[in-house]
Design goal:
Elements lengths: L2 H8 L1 H4 L3 H19 L4 H14 L12 H10 L3 H13 L3 H5 L4 H6 L2 H12 L4 H8 L6 H11 L4 H13 L1 H12 L2 H4 L12 H18 L4 H16 L3 H25 L3 H4 L2 H31 L18 H13 L6 H29 L1
Amino acid sequence: MDLSELWPELTKGISNFTAGNALMILVGLTLVALAVLKEYEPVLLLPIGFGCILANIPMTGMAEGDGLFRVLYDAGIGNELFPLLIFIGVGAMIDFSPLLSQPQMVLLGAAGQFGIFGTLILATLLGFPLNEAASIGVIGAIDGPTSIYVSQKLAPELLAPIAVAAYSYMSLIPIIQPPIMRLLTTRKERRIRMEYAPRPVSRRALVMFPIVVTLTVGLLVPEATPLISMLMLGNLLRESQVVDRLRKASENEIINIATLFLGLTIGSTMNAKGFLDLDTIQILILGLLAFVFDTAAGLMFGKLMCRISGGKINPLIGAAGISAFPMAGRLVAKMAQEEDFENFILMHAMGANTAGQLGSVMAGGVLLALVTAIL
């Protein structure tokens, strides 16, 4: 066989390489750069970016048949396994005592989900079917596992842009939220000092909390049970204090492995053919609006609580009512300290942030129930 006959086979990757592939590889490189240079959620963006690069190298066979990406997708996303495993690890890392000692923070966690339903309505008006609009709205929770779980159930064809939007906006919290906080609050409000005299939370209460939440949510919103139960299982491992090995495995090996494979698989769905279209651009814009709406709603409810309390509540904590734990809570505390170095509202912010984590899961379950019933 001479070289002229071998040449097409040797150059098939180059001959099938398109401008769309080049553009998506640049997107993947951008995600990797954000992870490495800016350290924006590197655990998420690095594997997503690298998976995107691999997905746009033609003729690799990794996404077809029994290729690596197809196997990972079927094993961990097609059956929602990876998001559920991640939630066990998240639950093992969450301390709910700030929420239990300040139960009023539940209101901020609920307010922080407004953008989900506002964006759902907007997406419907733009012509998206109800199942797709609901999946897009969940981006506003800034909760990657919940977004993946809901979109896989309702609109699997939109999984790639929804997952990328959810995780990308989560990593960009330090850029997106501060301007909204400054716009909707005054310097005087941001300087409000909150007394932290937490009610003592017994070990019994901390152990009973995940069990009670699982039973309550399971009976009221059965569709949310898989997510909430895994989150609460992880928290029970933490608070029981009798299974330290399982707790450590959950918040380290299990969540790290699941996050690696999840990110790589999500990135692998970002191929040029399926990703570069008008719907993707609309989803990214709507997801950003959902995030903005959630943050704004939390801040406005925080201002309301500030007014009702006679100026004793710093409205900034409303911005922590989204699900991005613990980034949103830490950012709120940092913003308050930038205005007044001796202003410590971290525990209040964490109370709202953990409430937002629960709220996002319940909101996802409510959407699943409503959309499934309507359709």
